[in-house]
Amino acid sequence: MTRPPGLVLTVAERLADPATVPRLTITQHRQHLAYGPPGIALLHIELAVAEEGPWQHAHAWLTAATHGPVTSGRDSHPFYGAPALAHAVATAAPHMPSYRRTRDLLDRQITADVLARIARAQCRLDEGTPPALAEFDAIRGLTGYGTYLIHHQPDSVATQAVLDYCARLTDTLHADGDALPGWWAPAGPSGKPDDRFPDGHANNGVAHGIGGTLALLALAAQRGLTTDHHHQAIRAVLAWLDRWEQESLGGTLWPYWITREELRAGRAQPSAMRRPSWCYGTAGLARAQQLAALALGDRARQDAAEHALLAACTDPAQLAPLTDSGLCHGRSGLAHIAARAATDAPALTAKRLRAVIPDLVATVTVPDEPGFLDGAAGIALAVWSGLQQPHTAWDACVLTS
Question: Which residues are listed for Zn(2+) binding in this entry (predicted)?
Fold first, then answer.
């Protein structure tokens, strides 16, 4: 077993006690997986399961997350409220039985919330109107709920309902004479009206777009969880990504999104090199496509996805925009994806993927921000997972496993 490196232990010590972190983390972000106690708890749960830290620290952060009412229903989402707390609690529960009752209570609430969301989404699908990103994405929507469900409630009605929905999400929409992908959003990437996207856009990202849904469908299929037209839906998303694939001297790239103008022209506008991160860009999409290829038994596509990821990890032009260290869109996140992809790659490719990780983490720095997606806790988890297989499913919420 690989011991956690100094960076990980330093972060864990710094974040041992909720009372020592900025008060904003506990007050404004108390229920937030990305920025607050639930995400920080994941680091201490991973350490405790590996017998590299005390359960007391994990419990302190979970207690901080529940120091007040826990939000559910329409005001919650996979990264906020009951679902965010459930991910942390469910990560601990297999190893700490005292958390199982809380997990079961949260699971019942999640099931009710998911079925209510599905009912609203089905009405929208029946009307043939475009979805808001928050309906389906990994951070706020049904894809995010789905990844929790396939890990913790695989045989539930809610799991099947989400997979049914995700398959139907790939059906073509028609508007103003255009054939649109079923995940076409009427607003901008922020989910709000945006003058740059007067006719909406198709979001390709893992965090906020169809890349996350592709990963969910692939991970579900690998677990034997499928729905009608499941593989057809996977192939529909892959065909879309193939349509917009771009080649550079450094490797294969995919645009973050497609506008209506680009859709009508049949080509994406050339743009400056964008970072190959988890949330948007080549790294997250390469992992999603590798998972899809594994689900389909498509070795050629798997090879292509793995080589795109290798290029993203080594091409100076692609790495140049990667200026921070975070899990979401920084170097530690890229290292984590490389490590996860290596576990599923053939031996030679796996060796090459693992070989790039030391260089990726060598320049990682730890910010003052303590949280999971952009902060110290997520960086520590990602760096350690680059060195050895995680002991828990902490990264299920980012659809890398």
Answer: 279, 328-329
What region does 219 belong to: left with phi over 0, alpha with psi -120 to 50, or beta?
A: alpha
Residue 185 pairs in a beta bridge with: 201
Residues 6 or more apart in contact with residue 327 via CB below 8 angstroms: 278, 333, 336, 372, 373, 374, 378, 379, 381, 382, 398
Binding residues: 279, 328-329
Q: What is the DSSP letter of 300?
A: H
Long-range pairs, 15-24, Cβ under 8 A, ≥24? 15/40, 15/43, 15/44, 15/57, 15/61, 15/370, 15/376, 15/377, 16/44, 16/57, 16/60, 17/57, 17/60, 18/60, 18/61, 18/63, 18/64, 21/370, 22/368, 22/370
Nearest alpha carbon to residue 140 among 217, 215, 78, 212: 78
Give the residue among 124, 137, 304, 152 at the shortest CA–CA distance from 205. 137
- How far from the centroid of its chain's Cα atoms is residue 147's Cα? 9
Span 149-185, pLDDT tens digits: 999 999 999 999 999 999 999 999 998 889 999 999 9
pLDDT digits (tens, 9 = 90+) for 222-258: 999 999 999 999 999 999 999 999 988 778 999 999 9
**Contact present, 216 and 164 (Cβ < 8 Å):** no
Q: How far apart are CA 208 and CA 190, in angstroms?
A: 9
Q: What residues are designated binding site for Zn(2+)?
A: 279, 328-329
Query: Measured in whole angstroms, how far is the alpha carbon of residue 171 from the centre of its chain?
Result: 23
3-state secondary structure of 32: strand
